[in-house]
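Input set for joint prediction.
Command: fold jointly, output C-alpha coordinates.
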Amino acid sequence: MRALVTGGAGFIGSHLIDRLIERGDEVVVIDNLSSGQSSFIQGHLDSGKAVMIKGDICHPDDVVKAMTMDIDCVFHLAANPDIRLGTRITDTDLKQGTVATYNILEAMRTCGVKNIAFASSSVVYGEDAPLPTPETHGPCMPISLYGASKQAGEGLISSWVGTFGLQAWIFRFANIIGARGTHGVIFDFIHKLKNDPTRLEVLGNGLQEKSYMEVGDCVNGILHVMEQSTKPLNLYNLGSHDTASVRRIAEIVVEVTGCHNAVIDYTGGDRGWAGDIPRARLGIEKMLQSGFDVTMNSEEAIRHTAMCLLDEIGME
Amino acid sequence: MRALVTGGAGFIGSHLIDRLIERGDEVVVIDNLSSGQSSFIQGHLDSGKAVMIKGDICHPDDVVKAMTMDIDCVFHLAANPDIRLGTRITDTDLKQGTVATYNILEAMRTCGVKNIAFASSSVVYGEDAPLPTPETHGPCMPISLYGASKQAGEGLISSWVGTFGLQAWIFRFANIIGARGTHGVIFDFIHKLKNDPTRLEVLGNGLQEKSYMEVGDCVNGILHVMEQSTKPLNLYNLGSHDTASVRRIAEIVVEVTGCHNAVIDYTGGDRGWAGDIPRARLGIEKMLQSGFDVTMNSEEAIRHTAMCLLDEIGME
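C-alpha coordinates >
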Protein backbone atom coordinates (compact mmCIF):
# COMPACT_ATOMS: atom_id res chain seq x y z
CA MET A 1 0.00 0.00 0.00
CA ARG A 2 1.13 3.55 -0.69
CA ALA A 3 0.25 6.00 2.09
CA LEU A 4 0.40 9.77 2.24
CA VAL A 5 0.93 11.01 5.80
CA THR A 6 0.29 14.70 6.43
CA GLY A 7 2.30 15.88 9.41
CA GLY A 8 4.37 12.73 8.95
CA ALA A 9 7.48 14.27 10.51
CA GLY A 10 5.52 15.16 13.63
CA PHE A 11 4.94 13.39 16.91
CA ILE A 12 2.12 10.96 16.06
CA GLY A 13 2.96 10.94 12.34
CA SER A 14 6.49 9.66 12.82
CA HIS A 15 5.29 6.80 15.04
CA LEU A 16 2.62 5.90 12.50
CA ILE A 17 5.23 5.80 9.75
CA ASP A 18 7.34 3.41 11.82
CA ARG A 19 4.41 0.99 11.82
CA LEU A 20 3.44 1.54 8.19
CA ILE A 21 6.95 0.77 7.00
CA GLU A 22 7.17 -2.17 9.39
CA ARG A 23 4.16 -3.72 7.65
CA GLY A 24 5.62 -3.05 4.21
CA ASP A 25 3.90 0.15 3.06
CA GLU A 26 5.51 2.86 0.98
CA VAL A 27 5.10 6.26 2.55
CA VAL A 28 4.96 9.80 1.21
CA VAL A 29 5.27 12.48 3.87
CA ILE A 30 4.13 16.06 3.61
CA ASP A 31 5.19 18.26 6.51
CA ASN A 32 6.09 21.93 6.88
CA LEU A 33 8.45 21.07 9.76
CA SER A 34 6.87 23.75 11.95
CA SER A 35 6.66 21.34 14.88
CA GLY A 36 7.76 18.08 13.23
CA GLN A 37 11.41 17.23 12.63
CA SER A 38 12.76 15.26 9.69
CA SER A 39 15.16 13.57 12.12
CA PHE A 40 12.13 11.67 13.51
CA ILE A 41 11.89 9.74 10.22
CA GLN A 42 15.45 10.08 8.95
CA GLY A 43 16.05 6.33 8.96
CA HIS A 44 13.08 5.73 6.66
CA LEU A 45 14.10 8.57 4.38
CA ASP A 46 17.62 7.18 4.17
CA SER A 47 16.36 3.67 3.42
CA GLY A 48 14.18 5.03 0.62
CA LYS A 49 11.01 3.58 2.13
CA ALA A 50 9.67 7.05 2.83
CA VAL A 51 9.93 10.18 0.73
CA MET A 52 9.53 13.63 2.19
CA ILE A 53 7.87 16.59 0.59
CA LYS A 54 8.53 19.72 2.58
CA GLY A 55 5.34 21.62 2.05
CA ASP A 56 2.45 23.28 3.78
CA ILE A 57 -1.02 21.79 3.40
CA CYS A 58 -2.43 25.30 3.86
CA HIS A 59 -1.25 25.85 0.28
CA PRO A 60 -3.20 23.87 -2.34
CA ASP A 61 -0.16 23.89 -4.65
CA ASP A 62 1.90 22.03 -2.07
CA VAL A 63 -0.89 19.50 -1.52
CA VAL A 64 -1.12 18.86 -5.26
CA LYS A 65 2.60 17.97 -5.31
CA ALA A 66 2.07 15.28 -2.67
CA MET A 67 -1.30 13.89 -3.80
CA THR A 68 -0.92 11.51 -6.70
CA MET A 69 -3.38 8.99 -8.03
CA ASP A 70 -1.28 6.05 -6.80
CA ILE A 71 -1.93 6.97 -3.15
CA ASP A 72 -4.09 4.27 -1.55
CA CYS A 73 -4.77 6.03 1.72
CA VAL A 74 -4.20 9.46 3.24
CA PHE A 75 -3.43 9.64 6.95
CA HIS A 76 -4.30 13.25 7.73
CA LEU A 77 -2.56 14.19 10.97
CA ALA A 78 -1.15 17.66 10.27
CA ALA A 79 -2.63 20.44 12.40
CA ASN A 80 -1.63 23.18 14.78
CA PRO A 81 -0.66 21.16 17.87
CA ASP A 82 -1.07 24.02 20.38
CA ILE A 83 -4.66 24.19 21.62
CA ARG A 84 -3.94 27.25 23.77
CA LEU A 85 -2.87 29.35 20.78
CA GLY A 86 -6.50 29.95 19.77
CA THR A 87 -7.06 32.15 22.80
CA ARG A 88 -4.61 34.68 21.29
CA ILE A 89 -4.60 34.08 17.52
CA THR A 90 -7.97 33.10 16.17
CA ASP A 91 -7.29 32.11 12.56
CA THR A 92 -4.58 29.47 13.08
CA ASP A 93 -6.94 26.53 13.60
CA LEU A 94 -9.24 27.74 10.84
CA LYS A 95 -6.37 27.84 8.34
CA GLN A 96 -4.19 24.94 9.52
CA GLY A 97 -7.15 22.77 10.52
CA THR A 98 -10.37 23.42 8.61
CA VAL A 99 -9.08 24.93 5.37
CA ALA A 100 -6.09 22.58 5.22
CA THR A 101 -8.44 19.60 5.56
CA TYR A 102 -10.51 21.01 2.72
CA ASN A 103 -7.32 21.25 0.62
CA ILE A 104 -6.55 17.59 1.30
CA LEU A 105 -10.08 16.43 0.46
CA GLU A 106 -10.26 18.50 -2.70
CA ALA A 107 -6.92 17.13 -3.91
CA MET A 108 -8.17 13.60 -3.17
CA ARG A 109 -11.33 14.26 -5.18
CA THR A 110 -9.47 15.61 -8.21
CA CYS A 111 -6.88 12.76 -8.07
CA GLY A 112 -9.36 9.98 -7.39
CA VAL A 113 -7.77 9.04 -4.05
CA LYS A 114 -10.50 7.30 -2.06
CA ASN A 115 -9.42 6.56 1.52
CA ILE A 116 -8.66 8.85 4.42
CA ALA A 117 -7.93 8.42 8.12
CA PHE A 118 -8.26 11.59 10.20
CA ALA A 119 -6.87 12.54 13.59
CA SER A 120 -9.74 14.20 15.45
CA SER A 121 -9.86 14.77 19.17
CA SER A 122 -11.83 14.23 22.35
CA VAL A 123 -12.13 18.01 22.60
CA VAL A 124 -14.88 18.01 19.96
CA TYR A 125 -17.25 16.81 22.71
CA GLY A 126 -16.96 20.01 24.74
CA GLU A 127 -17.25 20.18 28.50
CA ASP A 128 -20.86 19.17 29.15
CA ALA A 129 -20.50 15.60 27.92
CA PRO A 130 -21.05 12.60 30.23
CA LEU A 131 -17.85 10.76 31.24
CA PRO A 132 -16.79 8.41 29.80
CA THR A 133 -18.06 9.96 26.57
CA PRO A 134 -19.25 7.55 23.86
CA GLU A 135 -19.04 8.29 20.11
CA THR A 136 -22.83 8.69 20.09
CA HIS A 137 -22.78 11.72 22.38
CA GLY A 138 -24.53 14.79 21.01
CA PRO A 139 -24.57 17.68 20.62
CA CYS A 140 -20.82 18.14 20.27
CA MET A 141 -20.06 21.65 21.44
CA PRO A 142 -16.29 22.30 21.44
CA ILE A 143 -15.10 25.15 23.63
CA SER A 144 -11.67 25.67 22.01
CA LEU A 145 -10.94 26.94 18.52
CA TYR A 146 -8.81 23.84 18.02
CA GLY A 147 -11.84 21.70 18.88
CA ALA A 148 -13.98 23.67 16.44
CA SER A 149 -11.45 23.00 13.67
CA LYS A 150 -11.41 19.26 14.43
CA GLN A 151 -15.21 19.16 14.33
CA ALA A 152 -15.17 21.08 11.05
CA GLY A 153 -12.63 18.59 9.65
CA GLU A 154 -14.89 15.68 10.64
CA GLY A 155 -17.86 17.33 8.92
CA LEU A 156 -15.90 18.01 5.74
CA ILE A 157 -14.74 14.39 5.59
CA SER A 158 -18.26 13.13 6.30
CA SER A 159 -19.64 15.30 3.49
CA TRP A 160 -16.97 14.08 1.07
CA VAL A 161 -17.97 10.50 1.95
CA GLY A 162 -21.65 11.33 1.37
CA THR A 163 -21.18 13.37 -1.79
CA PHE A 164 -18.07 11.98 -3.53
CA GLY A 165 -17.91 8.38 -2.33
CA LEU A 166 -14.80 8.51 -0.15
CA GLN A 167 -14.18 5.96 2.59
CA ALA A 168 -13.07 7.46 5.90
CA TRP A 169 -11.94 6.58 9.40
CA ILE A 170 -12.25 9.36 11.97
CA PHE A 171 -10.41 8.88 15.26
CA ARG A 172 -11.20 11.01 18.30
CA PHE A 173 -8.01 10.84 20.33
CA ALA A 174 -7.51 11.12 24.07
CA ASN A 175 -4.35 12.99 25.07
CA ILE A 176 -1.67 11.18 23.09
CA ILE A 177 1.74 11.19 24.74
CA GLY A 178 5.07 9.46 24.26
CA ALA A 179 8.55 9.71 22.79
CA ARG A 180 9.22 12.56 20.32
CA GLY A 181 6.45 14.66 21.90
CA THR A 182 6.79 18.27 20.77
CA HIS A 183 4.18 19.87 23.00
CA GLY A 184 1.80 19.14 25.86
CA VAL A 185 1.84 19.10 29.61
CA ILE A 186 4.73 16.64 30.23
CA PHE A 187 6.91 18.37 27.62
CA ASP A 188 6.14 21.74 29.25
CA PHE A 189 6.83 20.50 32.79
CA ILE A 190 10.23 19.08 31.87
CA HIS A 191 11.22 22.33 30.17
CA LYS A 192 10.06 24.34 33.18
CA LEU A 193 12.09 22.18 35.57
CA LYS A 194 15.09 22.37 33.27
CA ASN A 195 14.91 26.17 33.50
CA ASP A 196 14.32 26.18 37.26
CA PRO A 197 14.67 22.85 39.14
CA THR A 198 13.33 24.43 42.33
CA ARG A 199 9.86 25.36 41.14
CA LEU A 200 7.18 23.95 38.83
CA GLU A 201 4.31 26.27 37.85
CA VAL A 202 1.11 24.39 36.99
CA LEU A 203 -1.71 26.18 35.12
CA GLY A 204 -4.99 25.76 36.98
CA ASN A 205 -5.52 24.01 40.33
CA GLY A 206 -4.01 20.71 39.14
CA LEU A 207 -7.32 18.89 39.54
CA GLN A 208 -7.88 18.74 35.79
CA GLU A 209 -8.41 15.06 35.09
CA LYS A 210 -7.91 13.55 31.65
CA SER A 211 -7.23 10.30 29.89
CA TYR A 212 -3.77 9.67 28.42
CA MET A 213 -2.82 7.16 25.72
CA GLU A 214 0.68 6.15 24.73
CA VAL A 215 1.47 7.00 21.10
CA GLY A 216 2.46 3.42 20.20
CA ASP A 217 -0.93 2.24 21.43
CA CYS A 218 -2.54 5.05 19.45
CA VAL A 219 -1.00 4.18 16.07
CA ASN A 220 -1.53 0.44 16.63
CA GLY A 221 -5.17 1.24 17.40
CA ILE A 222 -5.54 3.26 14.20
CA LEU A 223 -4.20 0.47 12.00
CA HIS A 224 -6.17 -2.24 13.82
CA VAL A 225 -9.46 -0.37 13.54
CA MET A 226 -8.91 0.38 9.85
CA GLU A 227 -8.57 -3.33 9.14
CA GLN A 228 -11.66 -4.22 11.18
CA SER A 229 -14.12 -1.49 10.19
CA THR A 230 -14.96 -1.10 6.53
CA LYS A 231 -18.10 1.00 6.37
CA PRO A 232 -17.99 4.15 4.23
CA LEU A 233 -17.62 6.26 7.39
CA ASN A 234 -16.10 4.86 10.58
CA LEU A 235 -15.83 6.84 13.82
CA TYR A 236 -13.84 5.61 16.83
CA ASN A 237 -12.72 7.06 20.13
CA LEU A 238 -9.14 6.01 20.88
CA GLY A 239 -8.13 6.26 24.53
CA SER A 240 -7.09 4.35 27.61
CA HIS A 241 -9.20 2.94 30.44
CA ASP A 242 -8.60 5.58 33.09
CA THR A 243 -7.54 9.16 33.80
CA ALA A 244 -4.79 10.99 35.65
CA SER A 245 -4.81 14.43 37.24
CA VAL A 246 -2.42 17.23 36.28
CA ARG A 247 -1.32 17.16 39.92
CA ARG A 248 -0.29 13.51 39.53
CA ILE A 249 1.54 14.31 36.27
CA ALA A 250 3.46 17.07 38.06
CA GLU A 251 4.45 14.65 40.82
CA ILE A 252 5.61 12.01 38.33
CA VAL A 253 7.65 14.51 36.32
CA VAL A 254 9.26 15.89 39.48
CA GLU A 255 10.14 12.33 40.47
CA VAL A 256 11.44 11.23 37.06
CA THR A 257 13.55 14.37 36.58
CA GLY A 258 14.98 13.97 40.07
CA CYS A 259 13.98 17.53 41.02
CA HIS A 260 12.80 16.27 44.40
CA ASN A 261 12.96 19.68 46.04
CA ALA A 262 10.83 21.44 43.44
CA VAL A 263 7.88 23.35 44.86
CA ILE A 264 4.75 22.82 42.77
CA ASP A 265 2.88 26.13 42.35
CA TYR A 266 -0.70 26.07 41.14
CA THR A 267 -1.97 29.20 39.36
CA GLY A 268 -5.50 28.29 40.50
CA GLY A 269 -8.83 28.03 38.74
CA ASP A 270 -10.49 24.88 37.43
CA ARG A 271 -8.74 24.94 34.06
CA GLY A 272 -5.41 25.78 32.44
CA TRP A 273 -6.79 28.44 30.07
CA ALA A 274 -10.06 29.60 28.47
CA GLY A 275 -11.15 26.74 26.26
CA ASP A 276 -9.39 24.04 28.28
CA ILE A 277 -11.66 21.17 29.32
CA PRO A 278 -11.14 20.31 33.01
CA ARG A 279 -12.29 16.69 32.85
CA ALA A 280 -12.20 14.35 29.88
CA ARG A 281 -12.47 10.62 29.46
CA LEU A 282 -13.44 8.82 26.29
CA GLY A 283 -15.75 5.84 26.14
CA ILE A 284 -13.64 3.12 24.51
CA GLU A 285 -16.20 0.30 24.27
CA LYS A 286 -16.27 0.51 20.49
CA MET A 287 -12.47 0.35 20.28
CA LEU A 288 -12.41 -2.63 22.65
CA GLN A 289 -15.13 -4.38 20.65
CA SER A 290 -12.98 -4.07 17.54
CA GLY A 291 -10.52 -6.34 19.34
CA PHE A 292 -7.96 -3.72 20.27
CA ASP A 293 -6.78 -2.79 23.75
CA VAL A 294 -4.07 -0.50 25.08
CA THR A 295 -0.88 -1.79 26.71
CA MET A 296 -0.51 1.11 29.16
CA ASN A 297 -2.95 2.90 31.42
CA SER A 298 -2.78 6.68 31.84
CA GLU A 299 -0.21 6.71 34.64
CA GLU A 300 2.02 4.15 32.91
CA ALA A 301 1.90 6.18 29.72
CA ILE A 302 2.76 9.36 31.65
CA ARG A 303 5.75 7.75 33.40
CA HIS A 304 6.99 6.20 30.15
CA THR A 305 6.64 9.55 28.35
CA ALA A 306 8.39 11.50 31.11
CA MET A 307 11.35 9.14 30.87
CA CYS A 308 11.48 9.30 27.05
CA LEU A 309 11.20 13.09 26.95
CA LEU A 310 13.71 13.55 29.76
CA ASP A 311 16.13 11.51 27.66
CA GLU A 312 15.38 13.62 24.55
CA ILE A 313 15.36 17.03 26.22
CA GLY A 314 17.98 16.46 28.91
CA MET A 315 18.31 18.52 32.07
CA GLU A 316 21.65 20.19 31.29
CA MET B 1 -32.33 46.67 20.80
CA ARG B 2 -30.00 47.09 17.84
CA ALA B 3 -29.68 44.02 15.66
CA LEU B 4 -27.31 43.16 12.84
CA VAL B 5 -28.87 40.72 10.38
CA THR B 6 -26.51 39.03 7.92
CA GLY B 7 -28.42 38.00 4.82
CA GLY B 8 -31.11 40.41 5.96
CA ALA B 9 -32.36 41.05 2.42
CA GLY B 10 -32.83 37.34 1.88
CA PHE B 11 -35.76 34.99 2.32
CA ILE B 12 -35.66 34.24 6.05
CA GLY B 13 -33.78 37.44 6.90
CA SER B 14 -36.42 39.75 5.48
CA HIS B 15 -39.18 38.00 7.44
CA LEU B 16 -37.10 38.20 10.61
CA ILE B 17 -36.60 41.92 10.06
CA ASP B 18 -40.37 42.40 9.73
CA ARG B 19 -40.74 40.97 13.25
CA LEU B 20 -37.75 42.78 14.73
CA ILE B 21 -39.04 46.15 13.56
CA GLU B 22 -42.57 45.25 14.64
CA ARG B 23 -41.24 44.80 18.19
CA GLY B 24 -39.33 48.09 18.08
CA ASP B 25 -35.76 47.05 17.26
CA GLU B 26 -33.36 48.99 15.07
CA VAL B 27 -31.86 46.87 12.34
CA VAL B 28 -28.61 46.94 10.39
CA VAL B 29 -28.56 44.67 7.36
CA ILE B 30 -25.54 43.31 5.60
CA ASP B 31 -26.27 41.47 2.38
CA ASN B 32 -24.42 41.00 -0.90
CA LEU B 33 -27.76 40.70 -2.74
CA SER B 34 -26.62 37.50 -4.43
CA SER B 35 -29.93 35.82 -3.65
CA GLY B 36 -31.57 38.44 -1.43
CA GLN B 37 -33.35 41.49 -2.85
CA SER B 38 -33.46 44.92 -1.23
CA SER B 39 -37.09 45.16 -2.36
CA PHE B 40 -37.91 42.56 0.34
CA ILE B 41 -37.09 45.16 3.03
CA GLN B 42 -37.63 48.38 1.06
CA GLY B 43 -40.40 49.61 3.37
CA HIS B 44 -38.13 49.37 6.40
CA LEU B 45 -35.26 51.05 4.57
CA ASP B 46 -37.59 53.87 3.48
CA SER B 47 -38.94 54.34 7.03
CA GLY B 48 -35.39 54.57 8.38
CA LYS B 49 -35.92 51.69 10.80
CA ALA B 50 -33.45 49.54 8.92
CA VAL B 51 -30.19 50.51 7.25
CA MET B 52 -28.61 48.47 4.53
CA ILE B 53 -24.93 47.83 4.01
CA LYS B 54 -24.33 46.18 0.68
CA GLY B 55 -21.39 44.00 1.46
CA ASP B 56 -20.09 40.47 1.46
CA ILE B 57 -19.37 38.75 4.76
CA CYS B 58 -16.69 36.71 2.97
CA HIS B 59 -14.65 39.92 3.11
CA PRO B 60 -13.55 40.91 6.63
CA ASP B 61 -13.44 44.58 5.57
CA ASP B 62 -17.13 44.53 4.74
CA VAL B 63 -17.96 42.84 8.05
CA VAL B 64 -16.03 45.49 9.96
CA LYS B 65 -18.17 48.19 8.34
CA ALA B 66 -21.35 46.57 9.65
CA MET B 67 -20.15 45.41 13.08
CA THR B 68 -20.16 48.28 15.57
CA MET B 69 -19.97 48.11 19.34
CA ASP B 70 -23.60 49.30 19.71
CA ILE B 71 -24.92 46.05 18.16
CA ASP B 72 -26.79 44.07 20.83
CA CYS B 73 -27.29 40.92 18.82
CA VAL B 74 -26.17 39.45 15.52
CA PHE B 75 -28.62 37.28 13.61
CA HIS B 76 -26.32 35.36 11.30
CA LEU B 77 -28.40 34.01 8.43
CA ALA B 78 -26.25 34.70 5.35
CA ALA B 79 -25.06 31.58 3.52
CA ASN B 80 -25.08 29.95 0.13
CA PRO B 81 -28.75 28.86 -0.12
CA ASP B 82 -28.19 26.18 -2.79
CA ILE B 83 -27.29 22.86 -1.15
CA ARG B 84 -26.88 21.14 -4.51
CA LEU B 85 -24.10 23.51 -5.61
CA GLY B 86 -21.55 21.67 -3.45
CA THR B 87 -21.69 18.65 -5.77
CA ARG B 88 -20.10 20.80 -8.51
CA ILE B 89 -18.23 23.62 -6.76
CA THR B 90 -16.61 22.53 -3.54
CA ASP B 91 -15.37 25.78 -1.98
CA THR B 92 -18.60 27.79 -1.94
CA ASP B 93 -19.88 26.50 1.40
CA LEU B 94 -16.40 26.66 2.92
CA LYS B 95 -16.04 30.33 1.98
CA GLN B 96 -19.62 31.60 2.29
CA GLY B 97 -20.42 29.40 5.29
CA THR B 98 -17.45 28.45 7.46
CA VAL B 99 -15.01 31.27 6.75
CA ALA B 100 -17.77 33.89 6.65
CA THR B 101 -18.97 32.74 10.08
CA TYR B 102 -15.42 33.07 11.35
CA ASN B 103 -15.33 36.63 9.96
CA ILE B 104 -18.53 37.47 11.85
CA LEU B 105 -17.29 35.99 15.13
CA GLU B 106 -13.89 37.64 14.88
CA ALA B 107 -15.50 41.04 14.24
CA MET B 108 -17.79 40.45 17.25
CA ARG B 109 -14.77 39.65 19.42
CA THR B 110 -12.83 42.73 18.41
CA CYS B 111 -15.92 44.99 18.79
CA GLY B 112 -17.14 43.45 22.05
CA VAL B 113 -20.49 42.34 20.55
CA LYS B 114 -21.70 39.50 22.76
CA ASN B 115 -24.84 37.82 21.37
CA ILE B 116 -25.38 35.76 18.25
CA ALA B 117 -28.23 33.72 16.80
CA PHE B 118 -27.24 31.33 14.02
CA ALA B 119 -29.27 29.64 11.30
CA SER B 120 -28.06 26.05 11.20
CA SER B 121 -29.88 23.19 9.57
CA SER B 122 -31.34 19.72 10.04
CA VAL B 123 -28.84 18.53 7.44
CA VAL B 124 -26.05 18.57 10.05
CA TYR B 125 -27.52 15.29 11.37
CA GLY B 126 -26.75 13.34 8.20
CA GLU B 127 -28.79 10.43 6.92
CA ASP B 128 -28.34 7.78 9.61
CA ALA B 129 -30.13 9.68 12.38
CA PRO B 130 -33.30 8.32 14.01
CA LEU B 131 -36.50 10.16 13.04
CA PRO B 132 -37.67 12.41 14.56
CA THR B 133 -34.10 13.52 15.37
CA PRO B 134 -33.54 15.17 18.77
CA GLU B 135 -30.87 17.81 19.44
CA THR B 136 -28.97 15.20 21.48
CA HIS B 137 -28.36 12.94 18.48
CA GLY B 138 -24.76 12.07 17.80
CA PRO B 139 -22.55 11.69 15.96
CA CYS B 140 -23.63 14.34 13.45
CA MET B 141 -22.31 13.24 10.09
CA PRO B 142 -23.49 15.63 7.36
CA ILE B 143 -23.43 14.23 3.81
CA SER B 144 -23.54 17.55 1.94
CA LEU B 145 -20.88 20.24 1.81
CA TYR B 146 -23.58 22.71 2.89
CA GLY B 147 -24.23 20.54 5.97
CA ALA B 148 -20.52 20.42 6.73
CA SER B 149 -20.37 24.22 6.64
CA LYS B 150 -23.35 24.53 9.00
CA GLN B 151 -21.73 22.09 11.42
CA ALA B 152 -18.46 24.02 11.19
CA GLY B 153 -20.34 27.25 11.91
CA GLU B 154 -21.93 25.69 14.99
CA GLY B 155 -18.52 24.57 16.25
CA LEU B 156 -16.96 27.98 15.69
CA ILE B 157 -19.78 29.65 17.61
CA SER B 158 -19.56 27.09 20.40
CA SER B 159 -15.81 27.69 20.69
CA TRP B 160 -16.28 31.46 20.80
CA VAL B 161 -18.80 30.96 23.62
CA GLY B 162 -16.32 28.74 25.50
CA THR B 163 -13.22 30.84 24.86
CA PHE B 164 -14.42 34.44 24.57
CA GLY B 165 -17.64 34.51 26.61
CA LEU B 166 -20.20 34.99 23.85
CA GLN B 167 -23.85 34.03 24.31
CA ALA B 168 -25.34 32.09 21.42
CA TRP B 169 -28.53 30.53 20.11
CA ILE B 170 -28.11 27.90 17.41
CA PHE B 171 -31.20 26.88 15.46
CA ARG B 172 -31.30 23.74 13.37
CA PHE B 173 -34.01 24.46 10.82
CA ALA B 174 -36.32 22.07 9.02
CA ASN B 175 -37.02 23.05 5.39
CA ILE B 176 -38.17 26.64 5.74
CA ILE B 177 -40.63 27.76 3.07
CA GLY B 178 -42.92 30.71 2.44
CA ALA B 179 -43.34 34.02 0.64
CA ARG B 180 -40.20 35.59 -0.92
CA GLY B 181 -38.60 32.16 -1.29
CA THR B 182 -35.65 32.37 -3.65
CA HIS B 183 -34.83 28.70 -3.95
CA GLY B 184 -36.04 25.24 -3.00
CA VAL B 185 -38.36 22.60 -4.33
CA ILE B 186 -41.60 24.63 -4.55
CA PHE B 187 -39.80 27.56 -6.20
CA ASP B 188 -38.21 25.14 -8.69
CA PHE B 189 -41.48 23.34 -9.48
CA ILE B 190 -43.34 26.60 -10.22
CA HIS B 191 -40.54 27.74 -12.53
CA LYS B 192 -40.53 24.38 -14.32
CA LEU B 193 -44.30 24.50 -14.87
CA LYS B 194 -44.06 28.12 -16.01
CA ASN B 195 -41.58 26.98 -18.68
CA ASP B 196 -43.62 23.92 -19.65
CA PRO B 197 -47.12 23.57 -18.14
CA THR B 198 -47.47 20.05 -19.58
CA ARG B 199 -44.60 18.39 -17.72
CA LEU B 200 -43.01 18.54 -14.27
CA GLU B 201 -39.66 16.82 -13.83
CA VAL B 202 -39.01 15.71 -10.23
CA LEU B 203 -35.46 14.76 -9.13
CA GLY B 204 -35.47 11.34 -7.48
CA ASN B 205 -38.44 8.99 -7.11
CA GLY B 206 -40.57 11.55 -5.28
CA LEU B 207 -40.62 9.50 -2.10
CA GLN B 208 -38.18 11.81 -0.31
CA GLU B 209 -40.01 12.77 2.86
CA LYS B 210 -39.12 15.88 4.86
CA SER B 211 -40.53 18.31 7.35
CA TYR B 212 -41.54 21.80 6.21
CA MET B 213 -41.97 24.91 8.37
CA GLU B 214 -43.55 28.18 7.29
CA VAL B 215 -41.11 31.08 7.49
CA GLY B 216 -43.36 33.19 9.75
CA ASP B 217 -43.46 30.31 12.22
CA CYS B 218 -39.68 30.01 11.92
CA VAL B 219 -38.89 33.63 12.78
CA ASN B 220 -41.48 33.70 15.55
CA GLY B 221 -39.89 30.56 16.94
CA ILE B 222 -36.42 32.13 16.87
CA LEU B 223 -37.52 35.21 18.81
CA HIS B 224 -39.60 33.20 21.28
CA VAL B 225 -36.77 30.79 22.08
CA MET B 226 -34.26 33.61 22.50
CA GLU B 227 -36.46 35.17 25.17
CA GLN B 228 -36.98 31.85 26.98
CA SER B 229 -33.49 30.31 26.89
CA THR B 230 -30.66 32.27 28.41
CA LYS B 231 -27.80 29.81 28.90
CA PRO B 232 -24.44 30.69 27.36
CA LEU B 233 -25.11 28.24 24.52
CA ASN B 234 -28.63 27.30 23.45
CA LEU B 235 -29.39 24.74 20.72
CA TYR B 236 -32.90 24.19 19.33
CA ASN B 237 -34.41 22.29 16.45
CA LEU B 238 -37.10 24.36 14.75
CA GLY B 239 -39.58 22.41 12.67
CA SER B 240 -43.19 21.32 12.30
CA HIS B 241 -44.94 18.20 13.58
CA ASP B 242 -45.03 16.15 10.41
CA THR B 243 -43.53 15.57 6.97
CA ALA B 244 -44.61 15.68 3.35
CA SER B 245 -43.26 13.78 0.36
CA VAL B 246 -41.84 15.43 -2.73
CA ARG B 247 -44.57 13.58 -4.64
CA ARG B 248 -47.23 15.36 -2.55
CA ILE B 249 -45.49 18.72 -3.09
CA ALA B 250 -45.54 18.12 -6.84
CA GLU B 251 -49.28 17.36 -6.71
CA ILE B 252 -50.02 20.49 -4.66
CA VAL B 253 -47.97 22.73 -6.97
CA VAL B 254 -49.67 21.25 -10.04
CA GLU B 255 -53.05 21.92 -8.41
CA VAL B 256 -52.25 25.46 -7.22
CA THR B 257 -50.76 26.51 -10.56
CA GLY B 258 -53.76 25.10 -12.39
CA CYS B 259 -51.54 22.93 -14.60
CA HIS B 260 -53.93 20.02 -14.19
CA ASN B 261 -52.71 18.20 -17.28
CA ALA B 262 -49.04 18.26 -16.31
CA VAL B 263 -47.37 14.87 -16.39
CA ILE B 264 -45.14 14.38 -13.35
CA ASP B 265 -41.87 12.71 -14.43
CA TYR B 266 -39.62 11.19 -11.78
CA THR B 267 -35.92 10.89 -12.61
CA GLY B 268 -35.70 7.93 -10.20
CA GLY B 269 -33.38 7.02 -7.35
CA ASP B 270 -33.98 7.56 -3.66
CA ARG B 271 -32.64 11.12 -3.57
CA GLY B 272 -32.52 14.30 -5.63
CA TRP B 273 -28.72 14.47 -5.85
CA ALA B 274 -25.55 13.19 -4.13
CA GLY B 275 -25.66 14.64 -0.63
CA ASP B 276 -29.46 14.99 -0.53
CA ILE B 277 -31.03 13.36 2.54
CA PRO B 278 -34.05 11.27 1.53
CA ARG B 279 -35.90 11.40 4.85
CA ALA B 280 -35.69 14.10 7.52
CA ARG B 281 -37.83 15.03 10.48
CA LEU B 282 -36.66 17.04 13.47
CA GLY B 283 -37.60 16.25 17.05
CA ILE B 284 -39.33 19.42 18.27
CA GLU B 285 -39.99 18.52 21.92
CA LYS B 286 -37.51 21.11 23.16
CA MET B 287 -39.10 23.82 21.02
CA LEU B 288 -42.58 22.84 22.25
CA GLN B 289 -41.39 22.82 25.86
CA SER B 290 -40.20 26.40 25.43
CA GLY B 291 -43.86 27.27 24.91
CA PHE B 292 -43.74 27.73 21.14
CA ASP B 293 -45.75 25.85 18.53
CA VAL B 294 -46.18 26.21 14.79
CA THR B 295 -49.40 27.46 13.18
CA MET B 296 -49.09 25.34 10.03
CA ASN B 297 -48.23 21.69 9.44
CA SER B 298 -46.03 20.68 6.52
CA GLU B 299 -48.80 20.39 3.93
CA GLU B 300 -50.43 23.68 5.00
CA ALA B 301 -47.06 25.42 4.78
CA ILE B 302 -46.49 23.92 1.30
CA ARG B 303 -49.91 25.01 0.00
CA HIS B 304 -49.51 28.50 1.50
CA THR B 305 -46.02 28.81 -0.03
CA ALA B 306 -47.14 27.57 -3.44
CA MET B 307 -49.84 30.26 -3.50
CA CYS B 308 -47.45 33.02 -2.35
CA LEU B 309 -44.74 32.08 -4.84
CA LEU B 310 -47.22 31.65 -7.68
CA ASP B 311 -48.33 35.21 -6.96
CA GLU B 312 -44.72 36.46 -6.91
CA ILE B 313 -43.43 34.49 -9.91
CA GLY B 314 -46.57 34.48 -12.06
CA MET B 315 -47.26 31.97 -14.82
CA GLU B 316 -47.07 34.37 -17.81
